[in-house]
């Protein structure tokens, strides 16, 4: 990767800009000690359902699929709860908090690069959380997999910002915390930075390694501004 | 589902006929108390890699992908081991044991129906384990996703036994323990029996429920032989 060749930076949303742990307080409130296994299984099923529905050719949008994953996880763990609780949890997806450094880092990166979001989430979810955090103004565009009713890591999805920003994929740096997403974007042909927010995480064995490994977005800004890598 | 209309029964392999727990003794021998988390993560990644590689259009066969999943799981859990141990574990995939009732049930079912296997596994893996258990003679055919380099739950894969056995999908009963596979086959249009080997397991929230839920293959034979459902 030649950092002088990068024209646009495209960010994944969940786990990358927005912290899913924003749900933890509500989950703990409603489920006590069951909150942690519920959160883990919910997130895992949410991902699995994007992949399985893509393969089955049975698209369902991210909000509804996230509800299905919550229903599965609660059923599997033997938990039951009222519709109002489900709705409260789903509503939180419209106003997830960013990780602490995201606002400042985006401001710095925005002065040098075109910025965009590419996510499996519905556009209204993404707009909701960017506005909630006051970071909406930094993005030239927000791309949702929902536009083409396909999920990452299908190559068509990574094509969205290439077409939308009119920038070749070799000039795009894609940034994600999610290891499968890193492999998907790299397989598609983008430059890829992996945010290793969890120091114990490892890359996937899918044959595609990131060009850059960083701990957070401030470090991305630093690395792009220097020739440190 | 009209049981009088069933002409052929097609079985998934891993978890359905063959018990992955056949690996447990070796895993315990090599990894002690790390064996259980390693086995769980290995199996999960093995599945994920079939799905992710399908979506990325980066096919790799099941044996090699199973090695990759083992490498990921050991890396993630901070375990290291020699190539000889990896090879010993992979070799076990060629001679997995069946669940206890499988041999007797297949013999009974074989007298009434055409039987086949449809699996993501390489054909040599499937032949190895059927021969190891002396059940090879019960099957009219063994279909491997490897033939078309696509994995379940892509519809093309479920089409293999339809074309091979020359039986319409409405006359096929597909049998699987794997809940995502149950949804995939049902979405494709087959009749589906779910073997609920784990009493705590639940079906996926993917919009497709099995026609029949059984505890093991003897119960499948019983249910097909009677009008109990």
Report on this structure.
Two copies of one chain form a homodimer. Chain A contains nine helices and six strands, in the order βαααααβαβαβαββα. Chain A is an alpha/beta fold and 229 residues long. Chain A folds into two domains: 3-19 and 98-225, HAD superfamily/HAD-like (Rossmann fold, 3-Layer(aba) Sandwich); 20-95, Putative phosphatase, domain 2 (DNA polymerase, domain 1), CATH 1.10.150.240. A six-stranded parallel β-sheet of chain A has the order 3-2-1-4-5-6, with helices on both faces. In chain A, strand 4 (172-176), helix 8 and strand 5 form a beta-alpha-beta unit. In chain A, helix 1 (24-31) crosses helix 2 (35-56). The longest helix of chain A has 22 residues, at 35-56. The model of chain A has no long low-confidence stretch (mean pLDDT 96). The A-B interface holds A 45, 48-49, 51-58, 60, 68-69, 71-72, 75-76, 151-155, 180, 183-184, 187-188, 200-202, 204-207 and B 45, 48-49, 51-58, 60, 68-69, 71-72, 75-76, 151-155, 180, 183-184, 187-188, 200-202, 204-207.
């Amino acid at each position: 990767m030649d950092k002088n060749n990068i024209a646009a930076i495209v960010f994944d949303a969940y786990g990358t800009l927005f912290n899913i742990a924003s749900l933890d307080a509500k989950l703990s409130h409603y489920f006590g000690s069951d909150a942690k296994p519920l959160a883990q299984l919910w997130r895992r099923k949410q991902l699995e359902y994007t992949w399985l529905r893509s393969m089955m050719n049975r698209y369902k949008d991210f909000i509804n699929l996230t509800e299905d994953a919550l229903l599965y996880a609660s059923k599997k763990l033997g938990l039951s709860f009222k519709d109002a609780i489900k709705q409260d949890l789903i509503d939180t997806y419209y106003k997830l908090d960013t990780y602490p450094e995201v606002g400042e880092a985006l401001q710095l990166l925005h002065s040098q690069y075109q910025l965009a979001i590419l996510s499996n989430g519905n556009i209204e979810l993404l707009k909701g959380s960017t506005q909630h955090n006051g970071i909406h103004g930094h993005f030239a565009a927000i791309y949702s997999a929902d536009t083409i009713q396909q999920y990452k890591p299908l190559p068509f999805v990574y094509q969205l910002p290439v077409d939308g920003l009119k920038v070749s994929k070799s000039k795009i740096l894609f940034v994600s915390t999610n290891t499968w997403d890193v492999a998907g974007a790299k397989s598609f042909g983008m430059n890829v930075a992996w945010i290793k927010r969890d120091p114990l995480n490892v890359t996937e064995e899918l044959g595609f390694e990131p060009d850059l490994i960083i701990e957070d977005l401030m470090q991305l800004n630093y690395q792009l501004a220097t020739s440190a890598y």
